[in-house]
Amino acid sequence: MTTVTTTPTERAYEPVIGLEIHLQLKTRTKMFCGCALSFGDEPNTHTCPVCLGHPGTLPVPNAEAIHHALMIGLALECELAPRSIFHRKNYFYPDLPKGYQISQFDIPLWGRGRLGEVRVHRVHLEEDAAKLVHAGSSGRIHGAEASVVDFNRGGTPLVEIVTEPDLTSPAQAGEWLRLLRATLGRLGVSDVNMDEGSLRCDANVSIRPAGSADLGTKTELKNMNSFRFLERGVAAEIARQEEIVRGGGQVVQETLHYDPTTGALTPLRSKEEAHDYRYFPEPDLVPLAPTEEMVSRARDALPELPAARAERFERDLGLTPETARLLAFRSELGDFFEAGLANGSAGATDPRTLASWITVELVPRLGDADPADSAVEPGALAELVRMVSAREVSGSAAKEVLDAMAAEGGRPSSIVAERGLGLAAADELSRVVDRAIEENADAVEKIRAGKDKAMGAIVGSVMRETKGRADGGEVGRMVRERLGLG
């Protein structure tokens, strides 16, 4: 037997990725005081001695935040700790007025769980830091560039979700984060707005020889605020680590910033270990021991989650996996879809056809807007879909009707009547088809020769003359009938 050896340059490597997600909870007040939560308000207008860390103040846990955290753990199928503890995470930075962050360390609220194929390591509660605003040259203080601190965000309730290193590609990491965001959004515990920072993601990235069970030295990419940002940043870091290892070097454990504009990875600091934060139990807070009543209340508040909803759309309604996921992951679209199906005044509506009109026609017209906030009513769209299926209006004319509905609302039957968009009468259509055949002799010869694409010339001519009031499929049938092609 011949033994083949490989050098580091030739060896294949595989990435190992874990995510840490920081989620701002949608509560009325901060985690340990009564200050109102805000976004975009005048800086330093929602503060008090507690969240500013004044001596002698005492924190009080936010019951609503605890309820949200219980819902999250249940949705992620985690193991509840009968008794969890708050800790002080000590570090000095301008955005932390107390000199420590109240978090949870060795006894988090939730332990092992799962979402899809990815294991969840822990889910715990903590408070957010304040916001540093880097003024730059336009914000000089005493002639020097400066950073200022907005303490409005300081003390915002956070849940941190930490996965196991189960992700193996940037695309998989992005897809899983989409599922998590959809799940958390469906729970209603956060607005999950990545642009505003209410959902932030850090990625721990390492590589190892393909097939190895050992973990390599990991680095951390901080504050990814979009799915594309995450995927591109992780891909760049994997490439950087492979280049180091193939060159005979060693990856250093550190924290990095990825610039999506330039693609550059910049070291921020050496990656801390737990002991660097000098964790110790928070002496001003008693242990958190959720009662059965608290857990039952959280469980009763759980809606149908996106993964289960997508599975139901596929199984019971016959939707394709892609369409089912789109409707389930954007819960506002799923709600609109089901409201349309449930609208009795629209008559029986085929779920697959309605789903197609929502995803292919309605979404491009509305963009990221919630259809519930648009002028299009679910029952009205379902009625339009039924009218197309019943051959009361052509597909092309129906798109014109949808344009009118998106702009001004209204019932499709009324719009069709007002604009004269109903399907052409049989005798009118017959005359128009005959004329189109006479005027397109070349296309007729090609159709007789088996070139079906030539049918487009005749159908297009009919559509132009009827101003879209003809059904393309019916026109094609009539042309073949007249040419004796069956």
Can you characterise this structure?
With 486 residues, the protein is an alpha+beta fold. The protein has three domains: 13-299, no CATH class; 306-419; 426-482, Arc Repressor Mutant, subunit A (Orthogonal Bundle), CATH 1.10.10.410. The protein contains 15 helices and 13 strands. The chain has an eight-stranded mixed sheet, with helices on one face. A three-stranded antiparallel sheet has the order 3-2-13, with no helix packed on it. A two-stranded antiparallel sheet has the order 6-7.
Average pLDDT rating: 89
**Order of strands, widest sheet:** 4-5-8-1-9-10-11-12
Binned strand content = 15-25%
Distance between the termini: 68 Å
Task: Give the H and E element order.
Answer: EHEEEEEEEHEEHEEEHHHHHHHHHHHH
Low-confidence stretches: 1-5
How is the main sheet built?
8 strands, mixed
> Class by helix and strand content?
alpha+beta
* Structural shape: elongated
Q: How many discrete structural domains?
A: 3
Continuous helix count? 15
Count the beta strands.
13
* Secondary structure: helix percent: 25-40%
Rounded Rg: 30 Å
What is this structure, in a nutshell?
It contains 15 helices and 13 strands. The chain is of the alpha+beta class. It has three domains: 13-299, no CATH class; 306-419; 426-482, Arc Repressor Mutant, subunit A (Orthogonal Bundle).
